[in-house]
Amino acid sequence: MILLLGSTGLLGRRVLKNALKRELQLRVLVHGTQDWRSSPYANLRSKGVDVIYGDVTNPEHLEKAMTDCDTVINMVGRLHAPNKKDLEVSNIETTEKIVTAVNSLSIKRFLHVSCLGASENSASEAMKMKRQGELMVENCSSYWTIFRPSFLFGKTCFLVDLVDPLLRFKPCLAVPGSGMNEIQPVSVNEVAECILESIKDRESVGKTFKLAGLRPISLLAFMELARAKLRLSGPTFHIPLDVSIGLNSMLAMAVPKQLKGSDAMMLLTTDSIAYENDLETKFGLKSDDFEVSLAALLIKH
């Protein structure tokens, strides 16, 4: 039995869909009602998925969900939250509870999704927390594997959603920092396939895989490309990260509330690239082209 944690997110939904195609024995832990007749998960039950209702932050619910499972795939986590405490709960406290349950129930196989750019030396709190979560996994008693994907894209993309207000500000393009940091967004389907391929792959045990798209692109180039696809013009300004945004009224208007005074600005200036892309070298897969997909992602807003 394989337990999926975080099965309602962009990656989780794709892993669930692809796992069903492989006819794997699945269980999901989800929030929701116990009334299966009105639940959106009734369809999953009809496909043989064991649906457990509960809270991933509750140790008792985790233990119930993991009972009789030999594999746990953890896709729980956040890159952006309203405050630091919410980031800690999602990326550190929840991961700690999951690892504790994995250890106590002697789960054989544990696959954990982190993020490309995770580092204790990162300027981004989210990336520091991602690395803390990785360290917990590396010290667990299970046969573990860690995946570090760059920004994921499919029907939606967190990165595009985050900068969308900046892209659509008509008077100018406001770019966080220098814009010279590089990103390498990767398609969610290929990342899902890497995870599923690794479940029974002994060579992946105790390893961390970096999963990235076709080519790196600077944050500045990405934002300029997106702006061109929106057919917007105007000057480009760089948002300073070390001074108050209120010093410049134009930039103050361009930057949405969700970015002001939050870790998101630091996250956007962090490198998220793979010089050795395991998506291609280890798994023999290639991502969809993010630059080609960008137009469709922008239309959804």
Notes on the protein architecture:
The protein has 301 residues and is of the alpha/beta class. It has a domain at 2-154 and 186-213 and 273-287: Rossmann fold (3-Layer(aba) Sandwich), CATH 3.40.50. The protein has twelve helices and 13 strands. It has helices at 10-21, 42-46, 59-66, 84-104, 125-138, 158-167, 188-198, 219-229, 249-254, 264-268, 278-281, 290-299, and strands at 2-5, 26-30, 50-53, 71-74, 109-113, 143-149, 152-153, 173-176, 182-183, 186-187, 207-211, 217-218, 236-239. Strand 1 (2-5), helix 1 (10-21) and strand 2 form a beta-alpha-beta unit. It is globular and about 60 Å long. The relative contact order is 0.14.
State the main characteristics.
alpha/beta; 301 residues; Rossmann fold
What overall geometry do the principal axes of the alpha carbons give?
globular
User: CATH fold name of the domain at 2-154 and 186-213 and 273-287, please?
Assistant: Rossmann fold
Give the radius of gyration: 20 Å
The named CATH superfamily of the domain at 2-154 and 186-213 and 273-287: NAD(P)-binding Rossmann-like Domain
Strand order of the largest sheet: 3-2-1-4-5-6-11
Helical residues, percent: 25-40%
Question: What are the low-pLDDT stretches, counting only 5+ consecutive residues below 50?
Answer: none
Topology overview:
Layout: E1 2-5, H1 10-21, E2 26-30, H2 42-46, E3 50-53, H3 59-66, E4 71-74, H4 84-104, E5 109-113, H5 125-138, E6 143-149, E7 152-153, H6 158-167, E8 173-176, E9 182-183, E10 186-187, H7 188-198, E11 207-211, E12 217-218, H8 219-229, E13 236-239, H9 249-254, H10 264-268, H11 278-281, H12 290-299
